[in-house]
Write a structure and sequence with these properties.
- The protein is an alpha/beta fold.
- It has one domain: Metallo-dependent phosphatases (Purple Acid Phosphatase, chain A, domain 2, 4-Layer Sandwich).
- Helices cover 38% and strands 22% of the residues.
- It contains 8 helices and 13 strands.
- It is globular and about 55 Å long.
- The two termini are 18 Å apart.
Length: 313
């Protein structure tokens, strides 16, 4: 028994690897030819890229992968990220409309969501913001990771300053509502080609500046597991998730495994895409993670030996 864990496929972009049926076949072939017998897939967010492509294109590009999972009868759990966060907004609004029909007018924010969606005949368990599971006598927590840094860090700082004015404590719901505002703005602008082009130009310009002077414009450690470890522990603590033995996430596109003494084992799955243009971050493309009774293995598509191996002692 094994779980295939994938993050950041970014369907809808030309750099997405698994929009190719040949690459999908290669991935499933690698798994079937190894010692693993995969009966579950956990998708850790940014599966669809609704920020830089239309939903129609993103889902159409995902069809070879989704249909293959449906054909093989593999159970799928989908933990939503930031580039596909609109799926969460859709569910929150649907929940509110259903409750409003019953006269229940509580705020739309729901701290934990679980629902089911069907994509191309594939039934999917949808989860946000994190999926908790027991495996190999240990507690695992799966999340995309966008709550740890980037836009979320800025919005949390802003929320803290606003809350200080009222004297109230900052809650996870404050952060969630603020990032929803930011993410929905980006999602809506994706239908305007000029806005997407502008965003791409700004990204390339920032990448160029970071290559010129990475010490000023970038902090490589901040995007590493070591750099995010304290934020990971805070994420677990703030949501009162109890003991977590292993935290698995994506988001940064940087595969790796790390653990501090007394803390949870942390693994980043990396991504299944190739970065468009050069970036300042060391990224290994086309990586995925296998979890089974023997431990964790991070593999690169097309490579015989795993990049990282970690036994669960």
């Amino acid at each position: 028994m094994a779980s295939l864990i994938i993050s950041d496929t970014h369907f809808g972009l030309g750099s997405s690897t698994l929009h190719s049926p040949e690459k999908v076949d290669q991935l499933m072939r690698e798994i079937s030819h190894s010692r693993y017998s995969c009966d579950e897939v956990v998708l850790l967010g940014d599966i669809f890229d609704f920020w830089r492509s239309s939903p129609e294109r993103a889902i159409r590009d995902a069809l070879p992968f989704l249909k293959r999972l449906s054909k093989d009868g593999i159970k799928v759990r989908y933990v939503v990220g930031n580039h596909d966060h609109h799926l969460v907004v859709q569910r929150q609004e649907s929940e509110f409309i259903e409750r409003a029909a019953r006269g229940d007018l509580r705020p739309a924010y729901i701290p934990t969501l679980r629902w089911r969606r069907t994509f191309a005949g594939l039934d999917v368990d949808m989860i946000y913001p994190a999926y908790r599971a027991r495996c190999c006598r240990r507690t695992f927590l799966f999340a995309h990771g966008h709550h740890l840094d980037g836009v979320s860090a800025f919005t949390l700082q802003l929320a803290e300053k606003l809350r200080l004015l009222s004297g109230e404590e900052v809650r996870p719901s404050d952060l969630e509502m603020m990032i929803t505002y930011a993410y929905e703005s980006i999602y809506r602008s994706a239908v305007i080609g000029e806005m997407v082009s502008l965003e791409t130009s700004l990204w390339k310009a920032s990448s160029f500046l970071m290559r010129l002077n990475p010490r000023v414009f970038s902090n490589q450690r901040a995007a590493s597991i070591e750099g995010q470890y304290t934020a990971i522990e805070k994420f677990i603590r703030d949501r009162e998730l109890g003991r977590v033995d292993c935290f698995i996430y994506g988001d940064t596109h940087r595969a790796g495994i790390f653990q501090r003494k007394g803390g949870p084992l942390v693994a980043n799955t990396g991504c299944l895409m190739r970065e468009e243009g050069a970036t300042s971050r060391p990224v290994t493309p086309d990586t995925y993670l296998i979890l089974d009774d023997g431990g964790l293995a991070i593999r690169e598509l097309g490579r015989t030996k795993p990049l990282y191996l970690c036994e669960l002692l």
